[in-house]
Amino acid sequence: MSISQNELIWALAIAVLLAGSLAYLFWKQRKEVKQGAKPSGEKVGTGSVNTKQLQLQAYERLILLTDRIALPNLINRVNQAGLSAKEMQLLLTQSIKQEFEHNTTQQIYVSPEAWDAVRNFKEQNLLVINQVSSFLPEQATGLELNKSLLELIMHNPKASLQNVVAEALSFEAKKLMK
Questions:
Q1: Which helix (H) or strand (E) holds 100?
Q2: Number of separate helices (H) and strands (E) present in the chain
Q3: How many domains does the chain have?
Q4: Would you tell me which of 26, 50, 96, 142 could form a disulfide with 83, CB atoms 3.0–4.6 Å apart?
């Protein structure tokens, strides 16, 4: 069963709000760099080669995390035939939470803005999964949930923050390499 247009608009409004806040943080960070100011999240003593290497590795891991929890990639990886929509919802949300928890220590190596972007992306995906799932009938299958999620993303590519977050992480990593 498909999601109604009003429900889709509501889910998209929340996603767009999250995307807007991330875009603002990314714009603010770029503005600070252009003005020659230290970005607000820059750590003291970032000049050491070992520290820079750890920071670059953290950005790499967080870019990988955003790719792994992007809904199309996640659905492709964890999809199992025969699950109900509720079971699939649980599997998707647990996978996102586990991936995030596995990388939570990376926050000590990246700027607060970068970490917030990753955290907001995780929260956005959990919100979208839970909202889409709540609009499906109780007897819906996992396949129907996955189809509804993919349709939402296909029809509204701006609803996903993956590209914005990955670009922000990449930008910060490139700053470290200068």
A1: helix 85-102
A2: 7, 0
A3: 1
A4: 142
